[in-house]
Each structure stands twice: as C-alpha cells, then as structure tokens.
Amino acid sequence: MRNSFSILLFSILSMNIGNKIYELVLPLLVYDLSHSSVSMASMRTAELLPNFFFAILIGVVVDRVDRKRWALWMVGLQACLLVVLGLLFKTDYLHLMIYNIIGFLLMTFNYGFFNVQVSLIKQTAAPSMLTQANAKVSFIETFISIMGPALAGILFLFSDTSDGLFVTALLFLLALAAISRLPAGNREEAAARQSTSLMGDLLEGWRAFVQNRLLRSVTIFVMFTNCSITVVQTCLIFYAKDRLQLSSSALALTLAAAGIGGLLGSAVVSKIRTRIGLGQIYGISVLIHGLSSGLLALSSSIAVFVAALVLSGFAVALHGVSVYTLRHEQTPSHLMGRMAGITGTIFRIGMPITVYLSGWVIEAWGTGVIFAGAAVWNLIFLLLVVRSRVWTAA
C-alpha cells in the first residue's frame, strides 16, 4: 500500500512539473501571437470547458474501469497532443482556433487523469492517513509551483518558449512509466461495476451527493470562490507582461513566489487541523485570498506583486487541502470517481463565464478592477461561510 502511494506520488510529481511549465508556456505563446487579453482569456476558457461538460461523465466512467489503465491513456494522449502543439508553434501557425481546440482536448484528458488521481489516492492511502496523503500531494503541487516556473525561467533563457511544450511531454512520459508500475486494479470489482447502467451509476452518485448536507454546502461555496481564484490567476500573466513589463524568464521566476506561499501552507495545514476543523481552514483560505487580491489591486511594483503572490499561494494550498480532504472523508471509495465528477463540475460551473468576461473587462478597464472585485467577492463569501454549517466542519 505504502509503496503504491509512493509510486503514485512520483507520477503526480512528474505531471505537476509538466503542468506548471505548460500553464506558463501556453499563455505566453498566445500573448506573443496576439498581445490581447481577450485571446488569452478565450484560451483559458477553452481549457475550462471540459470540466464543465465532461466531469460528471468522466467520474462515472472512472468508477467503472480499470483505474491504472485509464490513467495510462489519459497521460499518453496528453503527451501526444503536447508534441503536436509544440510543432504548430515551431512552424508559426497563426490560427488561434486550432490552439483552442488542442487546449480543450488537453484539459479533457488532464481532468481524466485528475479524477482518477483522486480515486487512486483514496485507493492507495489508509483511511486514517488521508489528511497526510492530501497534504503530501498539496506539498508536491506547491513545491512544483516554485520549481516549475523557476525551471521554465531557466529554460526560456537558453531556448525558445515553445520548447517548454516538448519538455512537458517528456515529463508526462516519465509519469507514464511510473504509473505502469502501479499494481493492476481489481478486475472483479471493475466487472461488478460495469454490470449496472451508466445512468444508474450517475443517479447513485447524485443521491449520495444530495444526501450529504455538509459536502453539498462546501461544494456550493467552492463554486463561487473558485470564480475569483481562477480569474485572478488568469489575469496575473497579462498584468505582469502588460503592466509590469516583465520578460518571460523574469515572470517565470517571479511566479515562483506563489509556490513559496503554497509550500508554507502545505507544510502547516496538518498542524493547523489539530487545532481547528477543515471548515475553519477553508474559511481562512477565503480570507487570505481576498487579502492577496486586494494587494494586487493596489500593487504598482514588483515587491508588492511578489508579496501578493506569496499570500495567494498560501491561500490556495489551504483551500485545496481542506476541500479535497473533506471530500475524501465524506465519500465511500466506490463512489469516489462519481463524487469527484459531480463536485468538480459544480466547482467549475461559473469559471468559464467569469474567465471569458474577465478578458473583456481587462480590455476596457484594466486588471485593477478584476483584482478589487475579487477581494470584495471573497470577503462577502467569508461572512457567509462563517454563518454556515461549513464553518463547524471537523
């Protein structure tokens, strides 16, 4: 069990390094092609749509198939698409619609892996170790949020920006090799799950979600707070390039500041939970993200920008660990894929719309309006969280 979780952690490590490089490289390439906040927001919207359209279906399928084999397909297909995307940029292909389509497919397969990753954590970690397991995953994610941009910054100094896509594909192949070493899934369980209909499985997951009042409340709050978190993260690169005039390598190194905050958050969250519950940790994350957004609205220098990034990274780490640990603890293993799909879809309902609109808002009034609006939005929902059952969640 412990060895399997270590293998899973290595694959998550490789995937996260690749994802961090990709998340930085793609917006920069789109910015270089268009110099437009609307084009950048449209690309990000295309990446968010798969979660909205397919998350529930993917969750149902993940609960019916061999999870190891599913993970291998999801990672392998992403590696192939990244190579195609890199070749398109190398040949100066200028039709943004093709990039949006490839981005849509990449995020579809990326979510397919993320969903099965949630199930595999539940499968490979002992029930009493779920908080620590999620903290380790969050630690890796936030550590890579430091190292990923830093590696990308070094990469940009010595090579073309689009080379980051090929590096990401290579890292995904390393993850593929690691996942292939996981033990095979229980075929009898998979066969038993396939004996029921897709609709029957979906309804079973939906009933479990509706009946769980705590998880339902958390999901609604996350749906709204995710809008501000995603919009702010989408605006950061445009703000740094357009307002602060940072080079690609300087921007990559500066964004590592968010990883430092995230690293601190992941390091302390387990200790914080011994004193307060997951609900209060979630509320604190909403407060801190609101404060970081307010700092971004006031920032006019790199120093304030970096301080805001540290706070934002800390908040995102607390947010992720609290929400995903609560979901793990509230969900039986055989429903994990469906519950991840249902909650994941609701988490992201407002994100495509708000991200797309943010591009036009920036075009008209600048990024300051976005950051200030996100600060107010988070503080309003903090007050609602404190007055709800979520605040008292253990």
TrEMBL record:
Keywords: Cell membrane, Membrane, Transmembrane, Transmembrane helix, Transport
Membrane topology: Multi-pass membrane protein
Location relative to the cell: Cell membrane
GO MF assignments: transmembrane transporter activity
UniProt domain Major facilitator superfamily (MFS) profile: residue ranges: 214-394
GO cellular component terms attached to this protein's record: plasma membrane
PROSITE patterns: MFS (PS50850)
Transmembrane segments: 42-63, 70-90, 96-116, 137-158, 164-184, 218-240, 246-269, 281-298, 304-326, 338-358, 364-386
Origin: domain of life: Bacteria
Any coiled-coil regions, as ranges: none
Pfam families documented for this protein: MFS_1
UniProt cross-references to SUPFAM superfamilies, sorted A to Z: MFS general substrate transporter
Entry protein name: MFS transporter
Species the sequence originates in: Cohnella lubricantis
